[in-house]
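[SOLVED] Need 3D model of a two-part complex

Original post:
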Amino acid sequence: MWALLTRDLRLAMRAGGGFGLGLAFFLLVAVLVPLGVGPEGGMLGRIAPGILWVGALLACLLSLDRIFALDFEDGSLDLLATSPMPLEAVVAVKAFAHWLVTGLPLTVAAPVLAVLLNLPVEGYGWLVLSLLLGTPALSVIGAFGAALVVGVKRGGLLLSLLVLPLYVPTLIFGAEAVKRGAAGQAVDVPLLLLAAITLGAGAMLPFAAAAAIRVNLR
Amino acid sequence: MLSVEGLAVARGGIAVLEGVTFRLAAGRALILRGPNGVGKTTLLRTIAGLQPALEGSVSVPAEAMAYAAHADGLKAALTVEENLRFWAAIHGTREVEQALAGMDLLALRDRRAANLSAGQKRRLGLARLLVTGRAVWLLDEPTVSLDAASVALFAGVVRGHLAGGGAVLAATHIDLGLAEAEVLDLSPFRAKAPAAGGRRGDFDEAFA
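Solution:
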């Protein structure tokens, strides 16, 4: 398992691996939205939680189709499926590697970009916490979607259509937590629901994704 | 070591082979032959457990098979050694040095897989078999893009594997130079076409 994780991280860091793609997209959203919306601080601060969460979600979506497609194309997925490592573990490890490469950098960069969007100071901690709790769900759900479309040529469009509805609860509770935190209200309900989605997805979807890959490898 | 009994396999929902029966003992090699499209790859994938059989059974000790497909499963951004170390770690073995030496890759160990020639990539793909530590090798056209010297090198590796108690099932058109290998021609096992009353795969049955 460790070998697969380090291989995926190493591949992501090497040239052409796609590390930083999501981060760059997130940066662009956070820089361009204030230019488009205008410099009025109150308005920006109000929409900041939603914009930051939508930006993080779309940035995550960008690299999803690579999770299994590359391994499918070069034959590694066949070989992993016949290796001693269970396919469920392969999915879980690859989803975790995807989170380390996209979700975690987004979480770390979010407070810096929140400055550009004039997020109220009270919201910064909640923004980081909500992303930390919510982005793993994005990677796991995305890995499930990627497993469904593995083998489909240019499956990115289909993948987005499949995955976006599943992302909606995470988006709603994530943005809600930041909004409430920024307004000084209690945030425990949306944060608990966010954690519940992540834990539930992490517990169940690797099995569903492994089953989908087995069907697609036939 | 590997025993196949009345196996029927399907590709794209249409049965291609049926009634395939053979046994492969430790230390033996079996070469599958047959024209293009007869179902050699499909048969190997079914035996490897990558797709379900229409009927019949494959019995083999657990975790005994190593499959080498048309695609080598190499990562272009990793070096030869890193590629091999990854598969060794996945299979929990350490024979990377022997595998590099066995397929004459020592001089290329620090080169990225992207910069290898087709034949060198193939050699790396075959070296992966040595680090799996598994007894039954399922080889699908192992000698594609290998030159004569590399084919001889690989034949030597296969012979070493057989001598160590392994077994090899290979689909190939080229003579591997293994005089002791048995040959199984798949043409007589060809399934009837669906139009002629032949069987279809599960998927089509479910949606018929």
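Edit: Chain A touches chain B at residues 2-4, 7, 10-11, 14-17, 73-76, 78-85, 217-218 (CB under 8 Å).
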